[in-house]
Amino acid sequence: MGRLSALFDPESVGVVGATDREGSVGRAILENLQETYDGEIVPVNPSREQVLGLECYSTVTAAPAIDLAVLVVPPDIVLEVLDDLGETDTRAVVVVTAGFAESGEEGATREQRLCERAERYGLEIVGPNSLGVMSTANGLNATFGPDSPREGSISFLSQSGAFVTAVLEWADEQRIGFHHVVSLGNKADLDETDFLREWGDDPGTDVIIGYLEGIDDGTAFLETAREVTEDTPIVLVKAGRTDAGAQAASSHTGAIAGSERAYETGLEQAGVIRAHSVQELFDFARALSGLPEPDTDGVAVVTNAGGPGVLATDAVGDSRLEMASLSAQTTDRLADVLPEEATRYNPVDVIGDANADRFGDALETVLEDDAVGAAIVVSAPTAVLGYDRLAETIIEKHEDYGKPIVACLMGGERARAAEQVLRGFGVPNFFDPTRAVAGLEALTRYREIRERTIDEPTTFDVDRERAQKVLSRAERYSDNRVGVESMELLEAYGIPTPASEVVSDPDRASEVARAIEGDVVMKIVSPDVSHKSDIGGVRVGVSDDEVASAYEDIVARVRTYQPDATILGVQIQELVEMEDSTETIVGMNRDPQFGPLVVFGLGGIFVETLEDTAVRVAPIGESEARDMIDEIQASPLLRGARGREPAHIDAITETIQRLSQLVVDFPSILELDVNPLVVAPEGVQAIDLSLTVDTDRLEGDEP
Amino acid sequence: MGRLSALFDPESVGVVGATDREGSVGRAILENLQETYDGEIVPVNPSREQVLGLECYSTVTAAPAIDLAVLVVPPDIVLEVLDDLGETDTRAVVVVTAGFAESGEEGATREQRLCERAERYGLEIVGPNSLGVMSTANGLNATFGPDSPREGSISFLSQSGAFVTAVLEWADEQRIGFHHVVSLGNKADLDETDFLREWGDDPGTDVIIGYLEGIDDGTAFLETAREVTEDTPIVLVKAGRTDAGAQAASSHTGAIAGSERAYETGLEQAGVIRAHSVQELFDFARALSGLPEPDTDGVAVVTNAGGPGVLATDAVGDSRLEMASLSAQTTDRLADVLPEEATRYNPVDVIGDANADRFGDALETVLEDDAVGAAIVVSAPTAVLGYDRLAETIIEKHEDYGKPIVACLMGGERARAAEQVLRGFGVPNFFDPTRAVAGLEALTRYREIRERTIDEPTTFDVDRERAQKVLSRAERYSDNRVGVESMELLEAYGIPTPASEVVSDPDRASEVARAIEGDVVMKIVSPDVSHKSDIGGVRVGVSDDEVASAYEDIVARVRTYQPDATILGVQIQELVEMEDSTETIVGMNRDPQFGPLVVFGLGGIFVETLEDTAVRVAPIGESEARDMIDEIQASPLLRGARGREPAHIDAITETIQRLSQLVVDFPSILELDVNPLVVAPEGVQAIDLSLTVDTDRLEGDEP
């Protein structure tokens, strides 16, 4: 057991605010504890001498040793009790009391003070506003919920106490068992990451599942979850996904909703399997807690029912799994064990008159095949098929071959007993073939998570000092927006840019243009002009002798359309002409939870409208950068489809990584766009740049 | 009752092949009939005098009048029995016997003969290879399945008999009742469309649901379903969606799988609501059979449980529904009836200590609000909330306000009784908030289907004779592929094309180019060259004096790269230069089930790779053509986003319709591509064309 062992395996539990008043939370907790808890129960309440037959103490200091203190006193008293606890050996505390950050300003201040005390006394506090904690290992139910879970290997964290009470009775009916359960409440002290860490090391936990509305510290979460998922799968429902939901979530327990795209990316990078409904959460948990991982993605469907078999096959086709191609040997063997009218290809149809033994023969034959990583048994009820016997057969084959099997014994009452038998051996049974496939898919997803290698981000040799100098100039500009005049920033980080200079008179413009080979591009440089082209602030392909007059023209146009704009000059830039080139975008947004999110995508207005982009939380390693390129839909074109020369993928990969390094090095960069980054077979060129700098954080950028 | 009344409401049922042999299909059917059927049962079997206590007749001609004959005789005997039935008054027949088209060549021939007899004697035949038919109105269970359905208003067709047996017992447990059930078998005679027509007129059917692997006649289906869905919703699972599934489906009952995109489009245009799993099929059916349609898309969520409330809100955000904005009056009233800590905005959180009355007050208040079209009640179990009382409250409000309410009373056993009460009044209860929202969404989807107007396709004044002349030339070309030399085809149908001519020598090329204003585009004309640009067969922006040498050059290149290509000449085409223009594609593919599928999408290789297209089955009316333009993701750009002039939407709309008219007029056109169709603010221009003609069908094109 880890740091939080006292929370789940206490030898004694103190209930501070214990009472025998009917319908009270204090009584409910005490009764739950009395029902199944193995350890000592210590009621604390200055106005009682006995509660429900137990001796009651006036304060925690007067009470015998308490491993875990559960507080159900009024909000005002909570801080006092924490002070008292500071004097005892108690370190694990659950604050059930509400009336903290979730309920206005006064509550928020109170929560602040609670945190200070946690720090001061070294307390590990769950809550406030928590339903409590449970552990089936020792019968601990320190909650005021109406149900206790059955024993199992799923550990469950929830930001909503109601979510726990809503699922426990149902889960019991479904024979889904739990190891530890915690209702996080307001997460003033302990949060989701603490429990991931705790359960990741806990041999009693096979799967961690959770309901979250927000993640407090994305960076810590990502790091911890990556480690934990090497051994233990994590499945989460992140609620508040949609605008409507996020609004609801933030009025609930005061969670601050990060942007959905950041969560999607962050959870994916963390190796978390995401569920989008209660049903999915438990379907995935059921598969992950009872079944071995499949070695390959090939699935065999064995069925006595044409239609449901096709539905399972469709679901496999929709998933990341695939229908296994059975070997010739397998189909020959199937021909031996099945009647002539049966289908000996995948899906294997053992046909309507099959009994459990025929199912068993077919199942055994497909499981022998190396192409088969997992099997789904789909059956419709018939007069000749005994479901109990079929369940036994499935378990037999499951144990013989060690490959995951999911069952789909359709029917109502007649499938019930068989279902119980299957579940007892970890084989989930679903009425709907689509859900059976989703369960298997979760296993495959987890195998991929375990097998992935996360490479260390490359550290390129860059000129940080020069970059910092460029950024510090941002203070001069309105809104701290920096533009094309700061292309030096990219140069400092080794990102290729065309030759360019910002000039402030027509003569110098001509001089610079002459020094550059070929025609040039001219762009207005102004922190106030965001759409340069729209107001005539850009000229492409200007010859040397036109440059001076073009300068006057550009400045005049900008003055006409935006009289108030500060004009810093005009950029004279080499005209990039690479064959088979494509405009892309690379950029960064800083997310409050997860930090710098790097974006790569195709440029040009049509493709931008189609939003064909890939996102990762920085820092980004080489293989992740490559994944980003492959992830966009138009990737085949960059890779050379349709008779085009492939773009210089290595150069794009490096640019993404160098940009990642830049935004990690400088927390003062709030957002950044390189648009376009022109990519071509011969390399890449960053043509335009804009970024916003948080000048208050410039100090934090240490060169 | 309709044409098929004898199938579902017979006064007598003959079982041909009736037997008392244990475990036989003939006995199973007879027993099912004996169990609940109101009418007369007539066993027919030449080798029995009595079967299960009923008098048995040697032939159908010797038997008393039979309204519905169920055949369970060996395959060879089926045709003889049909001949006998031809002499009687019997017209409704179910052929349970297998061994027809699903089982090889001999069976296919047998099925052919069965169809001939259906035609000859005017028989209405279900099957062969059918499980049978059921009607709960008169207790008819003429199947060999193990279960009988409970009474209800859902009529159910299935191409898989096993699918029927797989769901019936489960549905009974879920208190889902049926009116008619038919297992379609091989659909040799009667198919899905016949039953849609029948049940569309049937007052006992509120919802039609089905499991299909293929649709026999897409055009008839589309037409019938459009009509039926004006009054009766249709929900279908179309299995064999994925490549893997389609392969499985076609080995099952010999269904020919149409392309998935065609089905998707065809079913959508038909007004069919598509389900993607068994669970969805019944979730939708449950909502559609018990609840009224909502007037608006606004949904109110009333909950005592933060987390589950957020999940419901997320699901609403993901759906086509929206969270209703409650009026100030409503929130004021909520403030009156709810405690201070409750949330009086949507989702309305009545908080954990709410009893059923408080739920009722909140529910009543939100239902009063015109912005609320439907409500979802989400509850976690608590000590103070009685689920039975809550169910009664919900039903009370449901009846008072006539607005649809879906319940999500979470929990296990304790929710069971309440669930039964709710279902008894048509209010579905789901454990998972996501499913509750999906149920409501089906109602909204059906409202949209009922409200939509399908406008008659415009008939443009075109030159059919000229078009036909162009098409008839296709016979001369290899593979009957016609290219840019036939732009006249588009002209004949009033689709704008640039000035052009196909020439076969350099001098004529120069002459033509001079007659065209500005530079020209030159393209090789050859039925054998499919990627003209790739081999240097296209030159853009050629000035008049370069034309002759460009001609020689193009021909030489094509001869080098494709020495065997037949060269018909070179097209000299006006260079289209429209400001703010965009390349699009408009084309057609002929689907074996649904006929001509017209496609509109953006062109250019990047956007083609992103597959941003809209599809419709022709003929296409004006509003459908407009919908196609709006449906593509890049539509905002055509409509003038990002500072662009909007494209000439009317011209695009007309071009889509004219193309639709062309491909409907000429069934000989197998596929056709106008790529690109350049669209701009001033209009459209078809730049390039290719099509394939079925020269055997040229006769069918009547000008």
From TrEMBL, chains A, B:
UniProt entry tagged with the keyword Oxidoreductase: no
GO terms, molecular function: acetate-CoA ligase (ADP-forming) activity; ATP binding; transferase activity
Keywords noted in UniProt: ATP-binding, Ligase, Nucleotide-binding, Transferase
Enzyme Commission code(s) on record: 6.2.1.13
Record field: catalytic activity: acetate + ATP + CoA = acetyl-CoA + ADP + phosphate
A Pfam entry, by short name: ATP-grasp_5
InterPro entries: Acyl-CoA_Synth/Transferase (IPR051538), ATP_grasp_subdomain_1 (IPR013815), CoA-bd (IPR003781), Ligase_CoA_dom (IPR043938), NAD(P)-bd_dom_sf (IPR036291), Succ_CoA_lig_flav_dom (IPR032875), Succinyl-CoA_synth-like (IPR016102)
Top EC group: ligase
Membrane spanning residue stretches: none
Domain of life: Archaea
SUPFAM superfamilies: Glutathione synthetase ATP-binding domain-like (SSF56059), NAD(P)-binding Rossmann-fold domains (SSF51735), Succinyl-CoA synthetase domains (SSF52210)
CoA-binding domain boundaries: 7-100
Protein name, entry field: acetate--CoA ligase (ADP-forming)
